[in-house]
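Ticket #4471: structure export looks truncated?
Reporter: QA, pipeline team
Priority: medium

Steps to reproduce: submit the single chain below to the structure queue and open the exported record.
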Amino acid sequence: MPLDFSEIRQLLETIAQNNISEVTLKSDDFELTVRKTVTVTHPVVSELPTVAAIAQPSLPIVAPEVAHRVADHAVASSGAPSGASSSPIIDQKLVEVPSPMVGTFYRAPAPGEAAFVEVGDRVRKGQTVCIIEAMKLMNEIEAEISGQVVEILIQNGEPVEYNQPLMRINPD
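Actual output as written to the record:
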Protein backbone atom coordinates (compact mmCIF):
# COMPACT_ATOMS: atom_id res chain seq x y z
CA MET A 1 0.00 0.00 0.00
CA PRO A 2 1.72 3.26 -1.10
CA LEU A 3 2.03 6.21 1.30
CA ASP A 4 0.46 9.51 0.36
CA PHE A 5 2.07 12.88 1.04
CA SER A 6 0.16 13.56 4.28
CA GLU A 7 1.25 10.21 5.71
CA ILE A 8 4.88 10.95 4.83
CA ARG A 9 4.58 14.39 6.44
CA GLN A 10 3.07 12.84 9.59
CA LEU A 11 5.92 10.31 9.68
CA LEU A 12 8.53 13.10 9.41
CA GLU A 13 6.84 15.09 12.19
CA THR A 14 6.83 12.02 14.46
CA ILE A 15 10.51 11.37 13.79
CA ALA A 16 11.39 15.03 14.44
CA GLN A 17 9.59 14.99 17.80
CA ASN A 18 11.13 11.74 19.07
CA ASN A 19 14.58 10.30 19.66
CA ILE A 20 14.39 8.21 16.50
CA SER A 21 17.60 8.55 14.51
CA GLU A 22 16.78 6.43 11.44
CA VAL A 23 13.73 4.81 9.85
CA THR A 24 13.55 2.69 6.69
CA LEU A 25 10.30 1.68 5.04
CA LYS A 26 10.35 -0.90 2.26
CA SER A 27 7.66 -2.26 -0.01
CA ASP A 28 7.52 -3.76 -3.48
CA ASP A 29 7.04 -0.27 -4.97
CA PHE A 30 9.47 1.90 -3.02
CA GLU A 31 12.05 2.26 -0.27
CA LEU A 32 12.17 5.31 1.99
CA THR A 33 14.99 5.97 4.46
CA VAL A 34 14.92 8.96 6.81
CA ARG A 35 17.98 9.77 8.93
CA LYS A 36 18.19 12.44 11.58
CA THR A 37 21.64 13.97 11.96
CA VAL A 38 23.15 14.30 15.41
CA THR A 39 24.80 17.63 16.05
CA VAL A 40 27.74 17.91 18.37
CA THR A 41 28.86 21.32 19.44
CA HIS A 42 32.50 21.98 20.09
CA PRO A 43 34.01 25.01 21.71
CA VAL A 44 35.30 27.55 19.23
CA VAL A 45 39.08 27.25 18.99
CA SER A 46 41.00 30.02 17.35
CA GLU A 47 43.92 29.03 15.16
CA LEU A 48 47.50 29.80 16.00
CA PRO A 49 48.96 32.64 13.97
CA THR A 50 50.80 31.70 10.82
CA VAL A 51 54.57 31.35 10.80
CA ALA A 52 54.90 34.80 9.23
CA ALA A 53 53.17 36.32 12.26
CA ILE A 54 55.43 34.40 14.66
CA ALA A 55 58.73 34.95 12.82
CA GLN A 56 60.93 37.77 14.05
CA PRO A 57 63.01 39.77 11.49
CA SER A 58 66.15 38.13 12.87
CA LEU A 59 64.76 34.60 12.39
CA PRO A 60 65.22 32.83 9.07
CA ILE A 61 62.17 31.79 7.06
CA VAL A 62 61.51 28.08 7.69
CA ALA A 63 60.09 25.36 5.48
CA PRO A 64 56.40 24.46 6.02
CA GLU A 65 57.22 21.12 7.64
CA VAL A 66 59.27 22.97 10.28
CA ALA A 67 56.63 25.67 10.77
CA HIS A 68 54.62 23.66 13.31
CA ARG A 69 57.74 23.06 15.42
CA VAL A 70 58.52 26.80 15.34
CA ALA A 71 54.95 27.66 16.34
CA ASP A 72 54.97 25.01 19.11
CA HIS A 73 58.30 26.35 20.39
CA ALA A 74 56.96 29.92 20.44
CA VAL A 75 53.90 28.81 22.42
CA ALA A 76 55.91 26.61 24.79
CA SER A 77 58.57 29.23 25.51
CA SER A 78 56.23 32.17 26.14
CA GLY A 79 52.99 30.43 27.13
CA ALA A 80 51.25 32.26 24.28
CA PRO A 81 51.95 32.89 20.60
CA SER A 82 54.24 35.85 19.88
CA GLY A 83 52.34 39.07 19.45
CA ALA A 84 49.45 37.92 21.64
CA SER A 85 48.04 40.59 23.91
CA SER A 86 48.07 40.15 27.66
CA SER A 87 44.24 40.27 27.81
CA PRO A 88 42.56 36.87 28.15
CA ILE A 89 41.05 35.36 25.02
CA ILE A 90 37.39 34.95 25.95
CA ASP A 91 36.16 33.70 22.54
CA GLN A 92 37.91 30.33 22.97
CA LYS A 93 35.37 29.16 25.52
CA LEU A 94 32.20 30.26 23.68
CA VAL A 95 30.05 27.45 22.31
CA GLU A 96 28.17 27.94 19.05
CA VAL A 97 24.64 26.69 18.56
CA PRO A 98 24.65 25.31 14.99
CA SER A 99 21.63 24.94 12.73
CA PRO A 100 20.84 21.22 12.45
CA MET A 101 19.15 21.78 9.08
CA VAL A 102 18.55 24.14 6.17
CA GLY A 103 15.57 26.39 6.79
CA THR A 104 14.36 29.75 8.06
CA PHE A 105 15.48 31.09 11.46
CA TYR A 106 12.86 32.45 13.87
CA ARG A 107 13.65 33.93 17.29
CA ALA A 108 10.05 33.71 18.62
CA PRO A 109 7.36 31.01 18.65
CA ALA A 110 5.02 33.21 16.59
CA PRO A 111 4.97 36.71 15.03
CA GLY A 112 4.39 39.38 17.67
CA GLU A 113 5.47 37.15 20.56
CA ALA A 114 8.58 37.60 22.70
CA ALA A 115 11.83 36.04 21.51
CA PHE A 116 12.90 32.75 23.09
CA VAL A 117 16.19 34.36 24.19
CA GLU A 118 17.94 37.72 24.05
CA VAL A 119 21.63 38.56 24.30
CA GLY A 120 22.55 38.42 27.98
CA ASP A 121 19.88 35.85 28.92
CA ARG A 122 20.90 32.74 30.84
CA VAL A 123 19.81 29.45 29.26
CA ARG A 124 19.72 25.91 30.57
CA LYS A 125 20.57 22.75 28.71
CA GLY A 126 17.47 21.62 26.79
CA GLN A 127 15.86 25.08 26.73
CA THR A 128 14.41 26.15 23.37
CA VAL A 129 16.49 29.04 21.98
CA CYS A 130 14.94 29.44 18.49
CA ILE A 131 12.95 27.73 15.73
CA ILE A 132 14.09 26.58 12.29
CA GLU A 133 11.26 26.20 9.79
CA ALA A 134 11.92 23.52 7.19
CA MET A 135 9.33 22.22 4.76
CA LYS A 136 6.48 23.90 6.71
CA LEU A 137 7.60 22.14 9.91
CA MET A 138 8.64 24.21 12.93
CA ASN A 139 11.68 22.61 14.59
CA GLU A 140 12.57 23.86 18.07
CA ILE A 141 16.33 24.20 18.56
CA GLU A 142 17.49 23.57 22.10
CA ALA A 143 20.62 24.69 23.94
CA GLU A 144 23.02 21.81 24.39
CA ILE A 145 24.71 23.53 27.35
CA SER A 146 23.78 25.90 30.15
CA GLY A 147 25.23 29.39 30.05
CA GLN A 148 24.72 32.99 28.95
CA VAL A 149 23.76 34.02 25.41
CA VAL A 150 26.58 36.28 24.24
CA GLU A 151 25.70 36.79 20.58
CA ILE A 152 22.81 36.05 18.20
CA LEU A 153 24.29 35.75 14.73
CA ILE A 154 21.16 35.51 12.52
CA GLN A 155 18.34 38.00 12.01
CA ASN A 156 14.74 36.86 12.43
CA GLY A 157 13.30 35.40 9.22
CA GLU A 158 16.69 34.87 7.51
CA PRO A 159 17.50 31.61 5.75
CA VAL A 160 20.14 29.40 7.37
CA GLU A 161 22.32 26.58 6.09
CA TYR A 162 23.10 23.26 7.71
CA ASN A 163 25.63 23.65 10.57
CA GLN A 164 25.60 27.48 10.28
CA PRO A 165 26.22 29.08 13.69
CA LEU A 166 23.00 30.64 15.04
CA MET A 167 24.24 32.04 18.35
CA ARG A 168 27.11 31.82 20.82
CA ILE A 169 26.78 30.84 24.46
CA ASN A 170 29.32 31.38 27.24
CA PRO A 171 29.04 28.10 29.18
CA ASP A 172 28.64 28.03 32.98
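Status: closed, not a bug. The export was complete when the record was re-opened. Leaving a note from the reviewer for reference: The two ends are 52 Å apart (CA to CA).
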